[in-house]
Each structure stands twice: as structure tokens, then as C-alpha cells.
Amino acid sequence: MKKLTQSLEDYLEAIHVISLTSKVIRVKEIAKFLNVKTPSVVDAIGRLTQRGLVIHEKYGYLELTDKGSKLAREVYDKHKNLYKFFNGILGVSDSVSKKDACNIEHYISKEAMDRMIKFTKFVDTCPEGYPEWLKHFNYYAKYGRHPAGFSRKGFQNKES
Question: What percentage of the chain exceeds 70 in pLDDT?
């Protein structure tokens, strides 16, 4: 199958996200979720239906096919992992993390995504808790300088 456009991936992801909290999905919910006009949704749903990714009864409910659900989950998982990396690791603001995750999820390579996920998991499972070096990075990112007591060899004991 030909790769989906960013827009069609966004529609699949929206259907998936809405389905997490709602048993029925209608065109108007997708329009509201994506902040687009209803005719745009109808057009996109038509294209997704032609590709066998969505089942839509005219003027009725929508649902993802198995293939559509798999693709939607992949896009959504990328989004969640990118958001977690930007917000939780790099300390990027919530709104920017959401926006950047939404944009990058469509273009990031599998290799880079896998590496980012491993890095995030590495930090999350660090036996000492949130790593000191990452706290120092976030301090540096916020203030443009290293924390007091920092040297190239690490933090120095102020008593020595």
C-alpha cells in the first residue's frame, strides 16, 4: 500500500484516540477533535475507506478496520513516545511537545524512533532515579549555564 499522507495519518490517529473514550465515532467528533470542517473529514474518510482502513456507513458511525487500527496505533504510539521524550526528558513545554510530536511522528525514521524509545526507557529505569546529568542539562537549558559547583569532572565537593 502506498504510504499515507500526514493528513490521512492524522485522521486515523484521531479516530483511534476518540475510540479510547467513546464507543461510537461520528464525522462531527473527528472534525471537532482535529479542528477542521466536516467536508474535509468526509473527504478523508472516503479516501481511508477506499484503502480499506475505515468502515463508514453513510451518515452513520465510523470504525477502523484491523489494518486501519494497526496503523492508527503505530502513529499514536510514535506521538506518545515523541511527546514523552520532548516533555519528560528534554523539558520542552507541554504545548510545544504536543505540536512537535504531531509533526515529527510522520517523518521520523524507525531507527531514530527506536533509539529515542530506548533512551527514554533507559532514563525511566535508571536505578538511581532521575539521572543527575539530566537534571544538570535541564538546568543548563533553562539558565544557559552549568549549576553551581559543576566542573568538567562533574560536581565538586565544596569542602575539598
Answer: 94
